[in-house]
Amino acid sequence: MRSPVFAAVNTRYNHTNLAVRSLASYIHAQTGMQSIIIEKTTAEPFPVLLRSIIETLGPDNTDKSALVLFSIYIWNAPIMFDLAKEVKKVFSHSILGCGGPEVSYNAAEVFAREPSFDFIIRGEGEETLCDCVKLYTSLYNVQSSAMLNNEFFQGLENIPGLYIQCNGEKKEGFIFTGERKPLCSLDELVFPYPSLCRFSNGNNQIEAAGLPKTLPFTDHVDGNNHIFYYESSRGCPFRCSYCLSSIDKNVRFLSLERVYNDLQIFLDAEVSLVKFVDRTFNLNEERYLSIWKYILAHHNKITMFHFEIAAEQCTDSVLNFLQGVPEGVMQFEVGVQTMNPQTLSQIRRPFNKAHLESVIRRIPKTIHLHLDLIAGLPHEDLRSFRNSFDQTIVLKPDMLQLGFLKILHGTEMESYAAEHPQYKRLSIPPYEVLQSPDMSCKDLLFLKDIEQLCDVYYNSGSFLSVFSYFIETAFSLFDVFESMVHFFKEQNLFENKHTVKSYAGFLYSFLESSFFKPLTASDIFILKELLRLDFLRIAKPGSFPPWFSRHYSKELHHKALLENTQMKSTREAYSYSEYEEFEVNPNTYEIQKTPVLFLYPKPQQGIKGSTRIVLLEKNL
């Protein structure tokens, strides 16, 4: 098979592999060569993954040479290593290469782990791989596969940016062909989703007028369901010790003209979500503000854009601009990681706590906000992490992502961990920390339970009123979740998966228990009323659980519908609404009878709605 074959395995069906698309598109632009991309998920059985490669290469071609390239990350490395081994068994003359962050900086370990790989691409791969493909295709008409492969491997030694496995008649080990300079101009890259261009009325970077006669590869993406990853820059100026991005400090940008062009393709195709993978998007204020302004000026009221930003970089003018961003356009991810100054100094992250908190509080609620914490960092024990957790969640992010340190090959953190033998990590991907000098294995397992409950009860947004009360009345949410962990363990509730309505029932039982002792009788009464409100917010219930005390009036429900909706059909109005009376005002927490009308979203293809809550105090 003359065309290079890319093998990619993602963690979820709706993910897209940006790396193989970028590589295949670049190769096509430089050589006209089409590639074949096999894109699967880790959820698929191994025999299915293997068969997809075998059928692509052709089961009748097992004696012929083929160039197969594996995209390897921490989440798919074991699968990819096993696939390479089996592919080499069936296609003994196949040439197997790999690249990606999991293999770029530990060639000796990779070759020892899986000797089926013939070469590894170090770092950026566009130019290096393009040279490999040119070499391979120039030799393809050589009659003997063994001779083709022999001449190919000799030629590889002249291509910088490669680790080449030495075997057979050569000496054992591997050779490194030398560093390759990164691309000077990112505009040499090609838009990585060519199938979307059929929706675009404007120009694109594949061909100045419309689609090319041949596509770089056959791509099947669904604009409604797939996540489209996109990079407008490469490199990172920061030196965070745990991050691979700190290795490449040479920050390069796509031109604004090119970014506008690419964004318009996404907007014209009306895709649901575009995630910028720039390690820190907001480095150059003039540039990134221009991109945001373009998005607002051309937005299609459908596409959400995700950015990873350094919040402390946001100036007053940027924050003022953000006040005008409507809901559904942008979401931000901010890596707080820890609030411990000693830890932040050790991992080389600049920090001004007061400024960071001020900026985060000024990001408007119309922008969906993720804040990240990492457990297992140097100098952070359980008490310190508790403080980091509480000081971060009190900022009321839409999502608090509790992650665990991964000690990655090639990072400064790997060297630090080697100097501190108390650090124990998984010896296989994802290399997650099992124990640190400051946190025992037991502590980290406990934080795993905290993470699970935080996802269910906070990040889901299903219990917004209950947890807003905890925050606004100065309870430690870490202490709340710690008590819930003990409650869940006593009831064996961690053993199985549950529905969101079941979790509501567990929360009601928790409030009735004495596991969280700081709660007063007044707190418990208010929280139970707020839980009733959250239960109705989730979705219109088909039935009510025993713990739910109903206070309903059909007459007042009908009156509320007449006054707050344009009711065309009584039956439909009741189907998408609910009425309930509460003993607590959910906005002020005052003990006061408060009738509430719940208006549920009607299903729309590709669009998720949320329940609208109307307080009917004026009707009392």
Structure, explained:
There is one protein chain. It contains 20 helices and 20 strands. The chain is globular and about 85 Å long. Helix 4 links the parallel strand 4 and strand 5. The termini are far apart. It has four domains: 172 residues, Rossmann fold (3-Layer(aba) Sandwich); 247 residues, pyruvate-formate lyase- activating enzyme (Alpha-Beta Horseshoe), CATH 3.80.30.20; 89 residues, no CATH class; 69 residues, no CATH class. By secondary structure, the chain is α/β, with parallel strands linked by helices. Helix 2 packs across helix 3. The chain has a seven-stranded mixed beta sheet with strand order 2-1-3-4-5-6-7, sandwiched between helices. It has a six-stranded parallel beta sheet with strand order 8-11-12-13-14-15.
Topology of helices and strands:
Layout: E1 5-10, H1 18-31, E2 36-41, H2 46-57, E3 66-71, H3 77-90, E4 94-99, H4 107-113, E5 119-121, H5 126-139, H6 145-156, E6 162-166, E7 173-176, E8 227-230, E9 233-234, E10 252-253, H7 256-269, E11 273-276, H8 285-298, E12 304-309, H9 316-322, E13 330-337, H10 341-346, H11 353-362, E14 368-375, H12 382-393, E15 399-404, H13 412-419, E16 424-425, E17 433-435, H14 441-459, H15 464-472, H16 477-490, H17 500-512, H18 521-538, H19 554-564, H20 570-575, E18 577-584, E19 591-599, E20 612-615
Parallel strand pairs: 1-2, 1-3, 3-4, 4-5, 8-11, 11-12, 12-13, 13-14, 14-15
Antiparallel strand pairs: 5-6, 6-7, 9-10, 16-17, 18-19, 19-20
Helix pairs in contact: 1-5, 2-3, 5-6, 7-8, 14-16, 15-18, 17-18
